[in-house]
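Summary of Year 1 activities. Much of the first year was spent building the evaluation harness for sequence design. The harness presents a backbone, in tokenized form, and records the residue chosen at every position. We chose the following record to illustrate the format because it has been used consistently in internal testing since the harness was completed.
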């Protein structure tokens, strides 16, 4: 049996998501038997990007954040992309979903710019995490401890810095998601 058989995982993304940060974790957890929903702020397909500025593929949305609850999922993945992360952090339904998952002790994995949503939701105080370098001041100002490491696990929170760290990130999310 695969490590994540029977697990339901939400990937929170919208227009501007960094394509590889959506596809690489999705492929990893699907390969371990998980069921995955792309959850967004609206039902329309989302436009992914490469290096934040080059339009890439579009991806269908399975569910809308306003219509789901943390109880629907065993874990959450938040890919980056500057525009994606900025839009997600402003959405109250996304913040509610992430807050409820964190509060319930469910694993939440964020890569690159995605910790902006955690900062906006008030979820980094007292936590150690990593991110893209430009977010580290925001993390510190929000009471978190930013570090420069490939992947960091702090309780139920898993973070990585950038697309270069995706192999370590994917290995770690499979390990941590399997524990729940």
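For this record, the design step produced the sequence shown next.
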């Amino acid at each position: 049996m695969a490590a994540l058989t029977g697990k339901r995982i939400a990937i929170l993304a919208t227009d501007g998501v960094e394509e590889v940060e959506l596809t690489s974790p999705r492929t990893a957890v699907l390969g371990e038997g998980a069921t995955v929903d792309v959850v967004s702020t609206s039902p329309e397909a989302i436009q992914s990007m490469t290096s934040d500025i080059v339009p890439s593929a579009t991806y269908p949305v399975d569910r809308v954040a306003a219509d789901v609850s943390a109880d629907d999922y065993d874990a959450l993945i938040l890919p980056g992309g500057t525009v994606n992360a900025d839009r997600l952090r402003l959405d109250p339904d996304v913040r509610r979903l992430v807050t409820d998952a964190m509060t319930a002790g469910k694993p939440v994995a964020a890569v690159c710019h995605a910790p902006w949503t955690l900062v906006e939701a008030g979820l980094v105080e007292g936590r150690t995490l990593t991110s893209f370098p430009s977010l580290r001041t925001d993390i510190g100002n929000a009471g978190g401890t930013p570090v420069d490491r490939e992947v960091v696990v702090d309780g139920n929170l898993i973070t990585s810095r950038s697309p270069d760290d995706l192999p370590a990130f994917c290995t770690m999310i499979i390990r941590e998601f399997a524990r729940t």
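Residues 8-178 form a domain with the Rossmann fold fold (CATH 3.40.50.880). Quantitative recovery figures across the full test set are reported in Table 2.
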